[in-house]
Amino acid sequence: MAERKPIESAPKDGSKVTIMWKDGDGVVNESVGQYRDGGWWVYTDSDTQKKVDPTSWRPAPDDDDDQ
Fold this sequence. Notes:
Blueprint: E1 5-6, E2 16-22, E3 28-36, E4 39-43, E5 49-52, E6 56-59
Antiparallel strand pairs: 1-6, 2-3, 2-6, 3-4, 4-5
């Protein structure tokens, strides 16, 4: 598994990466997300997307060379 990196270094070209973010209850989540429309977005279920404020990132599992 790839090491997490500061979110400032994440690609903002629309590619999907795994991001770490906290929800409204302060619970840390890890989700595949992408930067678009001026922010980071994740799917909370198969139909719902949410804008989040991530703290770190790593390549998404499909792009992770260590798997």
